[in-house]
Design goal:
mainly alpha, transmembrane helix, zinc, SWIM-type domain-containing protein, 4 helices, zinc ion binding, metal-binding, about 160 residues
Length: about 160
């Protein structure tokens, strides 16, 4: 569920504007407009742009397409007359993995931060490598080991001194 809200302005059977901007960009009603129109029990087809009406779409392709002439009528390669052959582009494949052509959209947003916490400090949202208290904790660990060795040394000294 999204926490964002959008404002929809409807003009009777002509135009619709939504703050998400998709209606202006694509000339078709966005999901926000469709849900508002359905609440009013109207058809969302009334808000589709004239570009997408079937008659206008057919008018796009009314003009005649010209066929390509037979290959025998094409001009031949002749450097004297200035007619040079059309060669493929000089292309060399780069090393490494090719780039992807993925364009990020709203579905590619990552999930929020983890609620896991690092056990040594108990702070949520980081781990051992990013902990700002790790130097303090490692120093405390060092002191506890030194204290243990010191106590062990005193016990050994008492034990061997009494022999």
């Amino acid at each position: 569920m999204s926490s964002r809200s959008f404002r929809v302005d409807l003009v009777e059977n002509k135009n619709c504007i939504c703050t998400c901007g998709k209606t202006i960009t694509y000339h078709i009603p966005c999901p926000h407009v469709v849900s508002c129109v359905s609440v009013l029990r109207k058809s969302h087809y009334n808000y589709v742009s004239q570009y997408y009406i079937l008659d206008n779409y057919k008018m796009t392709y009314v003009d005649q397409f010209h066929n390509i002439l037979n290959r025998s009528t094409w001009a031949q390669h002749d450097p004297a007359s200035g007619i040079h052959p059309l060669l493929p582009p000089n292309f060399r494949r780069r090393s490494g993995r090719p780039r992807t052509n993925h364009f990020r959209n709203t579905m590619d947003k990552g999930i929020g931060q983890s609620n896991r916490k690092w056990g040594a400090c108990g702070i949520v949202g980081h781990n051992k490598a990013t902990c700002h208290t790790r130097l303090v904790l490692s120093f405390k660990f060092f002191l506890s080991i030194m204290l243990f060795i010191n106590v062990l040394f005193i016990i050994c000294r008492i034990f061997f001194h009494n022999l």
